[in-house]
Amino acid sequence: MTTGNPNAGRGHGTVSATGTGWAETAPDVAMVTIGVESRGPSVDAAYSSAGAAMAAVTDAFRRQGVAPADLQTAGLGVRAVLAWREGEGQRVVGYVTSGTLVVRLRDMAAVPRTVSAAVTAGGDDVRLNGLAFTVSDPAGVKERARAAAWEDARAAAAQYAELASATLGNVLSVAELPAGQAPIPFAGIQRAAAVEAMPVEPGESRVDASVTVVWELLAD
């Protein structure tokens, strides 16, 4: 998509155009968000159970070759479970402890096996919250997206110049507009049952770019 606004004056003026472009590449990193949720009659019981489950999950990832730097605790919480009892009102009947781990998996072929091992290790307390694919070094694909955006803007500016019976001169300004790389999401799962049989298809990761360029507009 392009937009432009030629402003031809006597002898010369300016023309601006906004171009968009994108490029795709195969993702090489899987970001897994996995957690545990344990219940117990006391804070200590719930916390200890969750800690054991999280330790088992973390150890499973390490045994699958995941580096310590690619394991990050992203959340930890304890909450009371309340229930209404006739004649007693609302009372605390237990506690829930939850923890979340964000894991960066760099061996794409091993993603299903690695996630399955972690889920199995954590047991019924495991929650697989999401999986997204991304690119570890998007610089190269970003350059291709910028080049596509530039050509898009230049084509629009050239058309406006032709419509104004003029030609493009020097570039006066270039402004890159915000455009992000959206990871390819994998459906979130509240309970990780039967994950061992779940296939994983990374597809293609897309990077977008958008640029506004101002050229001199030279009268023919």
From TrEMBL:
Biological process GO terms, please?
DNA damage response
> Out of the domains of life, which is the source?
Bacteria
Q: Where are the transmembrane segments?
A: none
Q: Where is this region: Disordered?
A: 1-22
Q: Which InterPro entries match?
A: 26kDa_periplasmic_antigen, SIMPL/DUF541
| Identification of the protein by name | SIMPL domain-containing protein
Species for this entry: Pseudarthrobacter enclensis
